[in-house]
Amino acid sequence: MIVKTGSFGQITVGDGEIITIPQGILGFPDYRKYCLIDSGDDTLVLWLQSMEDPAVAFPVLEPKIFKPDYTVKLSAAELRELKLGNINQSTVLSILTIPADITQMSANIKAPIVINLKEQIARQVVLQENEYGVKHPMFSELRVHLMTLKSRRMAAEPREPVACPVAIKDIPPALTVKSLA
Amino acid sequence: MLVLTRKLGESIAIDDHIKIVVVQIKGKQVRLGIQAPKETKIHREEVYVAIQDQNKEAVKTTAAVAGQMSKILKG
């Protein structure tokens, strides 16, 4: 189906690229259908785009990139809601806030998005850990990570960025999720 | 909403495994003790409000800023 987006024009999204968030994202309870868009800019930041409202798109990033020791402990109820029989078939994304001064970008590590990659179901989970904040600074860490990638890919030919949806089943599991019980 | 009146030291049971006790009453503040299974998630309401506000902030990222991101992060 064709999805209108605020930043990437019209994008064709297939069944394998749709994520259902049955309870919605906190503050956005009306939207259930999302897709993940790679803008093609090689920053590793993806966009969790609402398929129901073009203006609603959350920049997201895998938290292990800027916080290697990050773990997400899920309760039995959360695992059930996510239909997550095998926690290794999941990945975790943090929602980013990116102000005009990009160096001040931050990640919400208190309430990550957990995705069941097989069932294509996701949920925003509120973690119990008090040390996890909704505005965790991470610009420097992401920058260092991208530098490392750049030096490894010696002759990466510059290409025109093309935005495309991400096939959910092709996302590698993050092994970030643990069971709370 | 169910509204119950409790005195200091009295408690409320929710299901079989959750107990909420009024531990202290001081002026406008009430201290509550909560006994619940380990897997029950308990948060102050403000945590949810902060997350909702942050989510609303996150969708405000403009296309112009997004377009600059690659240059600033990789430059």
How are the SSEs ordered, and which strands pair?
The complex is a heterodimer of chains A (181) and B (75).
Chain A: E1 2-4, E2 10-12, E3 18-20, E4 33-38, E5 46-50, E6 57-61, E7 72-74, H1 76-81, E8 90-97, E9 106-116, E10 121-124, E11 136-137, H2 139-152, E12 164-165, E13 177-179
Parallel strand pairs in A: 7-13
Antiparallel strand pairs in A: 1-2, 3-4, 4-5, 4-12, 5-6, 6-8, 8-9, 9-10, 9-11
Chain B: E1 11-14, E2 18-26, E3 29-35, H1 45-58, H2 63-74
Antiparallel strand pairs in B: 1-2, 2-3
Task: Describe, in plain words, how this protein is organized in 3D.
The complex is a heterodimer of chains A (181) and B (75). Chain A is mainly beta and 181 residues long. Chain A is built from 2 helices and 13 strands. Chain A has a single domain (2-153, 162-179), classed as Roll (BH3618-like). Chain A has helices at residues 76-81, 139-152; strands at 2-4, 10-12, 18-20, 33-38, 46-50, 57-61, 72-74, 90-97, 106-116, 121-124, 136-137, 164-165, 177-179. In chain A, strands 3, 4, 5, 6, 8, 9, 10, 11 and 12 form a 9-stranded antiparallel sheet that branches. A two-stranded antiparallel sheet of chain A has the order 1-2. Chain A is globular. Chain B has one domain (11-74). In chain B, 35% of the residues lie in helices and 27% in strands. In chain B, strands 1-2-3 form a 3-stranded antiparallel sheet, with no helix packed on it. Chain B is elongated and about 60 Å long. At the A-B interface, β6, β8, β9 and α2 of A face α1 and α2 of B.
Mean pLDDT of chain B: 92
- Tell me the CATH architecture of chain A: Roll
Number of strands of chain A: 13
Give the largest chain-chain interface (CB within 8 Å): A-B, 44 and 30 residues
What's the overall geometry of chain B?
elongated
What is the fold-level CATH name, i.e. the topology of chain A? BH3618-like
Strand content of chain B: 25-35%
Radius of gyration of chain A: 16 Å
- Main β sheet profile of chain A: 9 strands, antiparallel
Outline the biggest β-sheet of chain B: 3 strands, antiparallel
- Judged by helices, strands and strand pairing, the structural class of chain B is alpha+beta
N- to C-terminal distance of chain A = 40 Å
CATH superfamily of chain A: BH3618-like
Q: How many angstroms separate the termini of chain B? A: 55 Å
Helical content band of chain A: 10-25%
CATH class of chain A: Mainly Beta
Number of domains of chain A: 1
Number of helices, counting only DSSP H or I runs of 4 residues or more of chain B: 2
Number of helices of chain A: 2
Q: What low-confidence regions of chain A span 5 or more consecutive residues with pLDDT below 50? A: none
